[in-house]
Amino acid sequence: MTGYSKPGDALQLRDGRGMALARARSGRSGRLKARIGVGIVLAYVVVAITAPWLAPHDPLKQDVLNALQGSSRAHLLGTDELGRDELSRLLYGARIDLPVAALVTFLPCLIGTAIGVVCGYVGGWFDALIGRISDLLQAFPTYILMIVLVFSLGPGVRSLLIAFTLVGWVVYARLVRVEVLRIRDSGYVTAAVTAGFRAPRIIFRHVLPNTIRQTLLYLTSDLVFAVTALAAFSFLGFGIQQPTAEWGSMTAAAQPYLGVKASLTVWPGIVITVLAFGFALIGDGLQNRKGGR
Amino acid sequence: MTDEVTGRFAFVARRVVSLVPLVLGILLLAMLLLSLAPGNPARNVTGPRASQGEVDKVAHQLGLDQPVWERYLHYVGKVSTGDLGTSLKTGQRVSGQIASQLPVTLSIAVLGVLIALVASVLLAIAAARRPDGIVDQAVRLIAVLGIGLPTFWVAIMAIRLIALPTGWFPVAGVGQGLLEHLRSYVLPAVVVGISTMAPMIRSLRATMIELYEAEFVLAARTLGFSGPSLVVGFQLRNAVPPLITVAAAQAGYALFGTVVVEVAFGLPGMGQGLATAASTQDFPLVQGYVIVFAVMIVLIYLFTDVINSIVDPRVRITA
Amino acid sequence: MESARPPAVLSVENLVLKRKRDGKVLVEDLSFALDAGHTLGIVGESGSGKSISLRSIVGIQPSVLGREGNVACTPRTAMVFQEPATALNPTMRVGAFVARTWRMHHPRTTRAEARAAAVSLFDQVGIIDPERRVRAWPHELSGGMKQRIMIAAALATDPEVLLCDEPTTALDVRVQAQILNLLRRLVAERNMAMVFVSHDLAVVSVVCEQVLVMRNGRMVESGPVGQVLNNPSAGYTRELLAANLTRRLEIREPRQQKDGVG
Fold first, then answer.
1. Most buried one in A71, C217, C223, C242, CB count within 10 A?
2. Do B152 and A251 touch (CB under 8 A)?
3. End-to-end CA distance of chain B
4. What is the pLDDT of residue A293?
């Protein structure tokens, strides 16, 4: 695309390559992005599943005499502050962070979608009530809410789950509800009902497919958030705690030793970023399909 | 002219009124915090080995023996006079402790958001000049990466790569005097800025590119506007309202980032305070923090509404 | 319709507009030239390519289109757009807009001079109480007013050529007449060349001396406006005329009025 035109440019205007090419390119690069993203996530999944075989050592086995060692044949990434093998802990971390992030993202999605369907379908007082609740929830500063919940419910996956779910369902409910209402007011439902179809079938056949694209987009960005937020909460001391091998708490535990063995704090962060990046790429790739930017 | 001014006051007043229910809701939630925890709240505070008498005493102290609405009314009354209770651990007034930490957190958060805004504007303009050019692709990559970068990691990297080697920035605590204070805030603020700017960059870049083909921008181009006068006067001005909306949405995230950054850098701010209070189960203190944080965010919403009404002449006070 | 001995201020030769993606041709082999003080109308239905042809003269055709051919145009060219609501910057006061435009084309002038020039231009385009109007925001003004301001901004560049892309289509009939009269007067006063694009033959007949009829991206007929309207050679032109007949009578009336308030 050309730069900006100057006064008097009327005589010498050049056509840039511009938007047309850009749009064509972004369609192709969108698919590529999504593929790379999926590849990254799959790699993590594989690592999470095969960690017990992949990891050279037991991630929980301490050996305080050998703490904070540099890399060696036995310990490729060295040992942490309690003598545990860093590489093994990183690998095992995938068994925590990945599934929990997924759980914490999919549960609100499922619950939100279910609520949305019921709201749109049944309407009435239920819809109104849910509407008010969701307005209140949305107006409330989400992070504060989450911190409060995670704090009062105590450490562990359960409180994280409750916190994320309580906050995250709204988006999906709204999305699905709109679609249900739209379908309800169109000819589909009456036609289908007269043809003898029952409600669940209508829902699954017509409503949900239309919402899949948007739901996926929300899911990917929620996943990105979940991965980083989970680690952040653990870093702060809420959520998942030591001695479990989890990337956030590993970073927190290693921070006092920054001067001695900084790499202990570096690896978990890189690993988190790459995973989040993978999810983000998928989301971007999905968007580009429709000629976004 | 004075019409505008009185109109704006009315606008602000109306917005404030509409936010009151939210604040009341926040107070309710903070109060119920205690009861959310599993088990007997009073026992949670005293610990499992306390005697029944001690538990009862604490229960009375915390007002747990009163019906909910009475507790609530008392609570609202107390809070509106500025009394946020006393810390269980130190016995000090909660409001006092929070007040001393507030400036730290506020400085870092505000500075961080400003840095994010400035960086976003510069990067977005550079990227939008040639969509799909090298600069654009680089900026888009930065933005996508930025979304996935955990704030605490950036903070630690900053400590490791900048603070420790150069010794320019103190790594823990806040010095005396204005200059020392600033030095302690710069690095944390930059970290907050980096983690908040990613969505802003994307949104602003997209808006700017869209605007380049907007009718009034085309009109301006035919009239001879180009370069800075076009970008600033025509594109940026109209890209600001959506940016403000994004920035407001990011406010909560920015505050959270500040919490993380304070813990990482060991700064005596509200974030650090909250984390410590939480780990020691100091309920009244945590309640106090929750209220102050939440009210801060509500004020930010209000602030952005006002800014929007100033910046976008179409958002008239009639709204 | 060809240019006389002095060089034309605007000359278009074999203009071709092609869609870059698939090479589809939207405008083919369009040629015309214009002298100072002369007016040309381009008529056609929507989709005939008249609007994008005009925009391509100043290089603002949709970026999915590529332009070929020779376009020679004096740099002092200004354009008036069809929809004044979208053509004005919503976050800039109208006076500031015109003043800035003026100042950009008159270097080494002060802001005060620019503001005075803006007020004067507002007056020239028939806006009453210009000092007060200068501070207005675009969304506070009527369509006719906005269009006058667009014209004022165009005049601020001191143009030799004025390109009008259906400037009255979005306005209601009464205001249309006022704007048309305004344009005619300005063209005469400043000896500008004007290209006026419209789907409405009646409107074009009021303002232009020559007319060019386009259909599907090609020129179908051209000539002095009286001749083309009363004695069209192309069948298509006849059809166009028939469709426009009643409108033509309406427009002819207000021609006698003076510039009104708007």
1. C217
2. yes
3. 19
4. 35
**Pairwise CA distance, residues A9 & C8, whole Å:** 18
Judge whether B303 is closer than 8 Å to chain A, CB to CB: no
- Indicate the CATH number for domain A27-290: 1.10.3720.10
| Beta-bridge partner residues of B93 | B86
pLDDT of residue B146: 86
| Chains contacting chain A through 3 or more C-beta pairs under 8 A | B, C
SS3 content of chain C, % helix, strand, coil (to 5): 45, 25, 35
Nearest alpha carbon to residue A97 among A151, A36, A47 = A47
A243 preceded by cis ω (within 30°)? Answer: yes
B148/A280 touch (CB, cutoff 8 Å), yes or no: yes
What are the two backbone dihedrals, phi and then psi, of residue B200, each rounded to the nearest 5 degrees? -65, -40
- pLDDT confidence of residue B133: 86
Length of chain A in terms of residues written:
293
Q: Which one-letter amino acid corresponds to residue B32? A: L
A14-34 pLDDT per residue, tens? 233 333 333 444 456 778 888
Q: Answer whether B318 touches A (CB < 8 Å).
A: no
Residue A251 with chain B: CB contacts under 8 Å: 152-153, 156
Q: What average pLDDT does chain C have?
A: 84
Q: Which residues of C touch A291 (CB under 8 A)?
A: none
Burial A6-31 (b: 16+ CB within 10 A, else e): eeebbeebebbbbbbbbbeebeebbe
Amino acid residing at B229:
S
Taking the Cβ of residue B131 and every Cβ of chain A, the question of whether any pair is shorter than 8 Å is answered with yes
Query: How far is C245 from chain B, CA to nearest CA, in Å?
Result: 32
Which ranges of chain B have pLDDT less than 70?
1-4, 33-50, 58, 61-65, 88, 167-168, 170-178, 315-319
C48 contacts chain B (CB < 8 A): no
Give domain limits for chain A. Answer: 27-290
* Average pLDDT value for chain B: 80
* Residue matched to tokens 């040629």: C31
Distance from CA of B319 to the nearest CA of C (A): 15
The pair of structure tokens assigned to B64 is: 């747990």
Beta-strand pair C210-215/C39-43: parallel
State the burial class of residue C87 (Cβ atoms within 10 Å of its Cβ: 0-12, 13-18, 19+): buried
Per-residue pLDDT at C80 exceeds 90: yes
Residues 6+ apart with CB under 8 A from A50: none
CB contact under 8 A, A15 and C104: no
Q: Do A10 and C57 touch (CB under 8 A)?
A: yes
Contact by Cβ (8 Å): A141, A83: no
Residues in C closer than 8 angstroms to A19, CB to CB, are: 63-64
pTM for this prediction: 0.79
Interchain CB contacts (distance < 8 Å): B and C: 65
Residue type, A189: V
Bridge partners of C197, per DSSP, are C42, C165
Nearest CA in chain A to C12: A11
pLDDT single digits (tens) C114-130:
999 999 999 999 898 88
More confident residue, C56 or A75: C56
For residue C75, give the nearest of A8, A16, A24 by CB distance: A8
Summarised one tens digit per residue, pLDDT across range C185-218 is 999 999 899 999 998 888 888 889 999 998 888 8
Q: Domains along chain C?
A: 7-76+159-252 (3.40.50.300), 88-158 (no CATH)
ipTM: 0.82
Measure CB to CB from residue C75 to each of A7, A20, A24 and give the nearest one.
A7
Nearest to B237 among C55, C60, C91 (CB): C91
pLDDT interval class at A12 (50, 70, 90): very low
Phi, psi of A85 (to 5 degrees): -70, 125
Distances B55 to B30, B48, C69 between C-alpha atoms, Å: 21, 9, 91
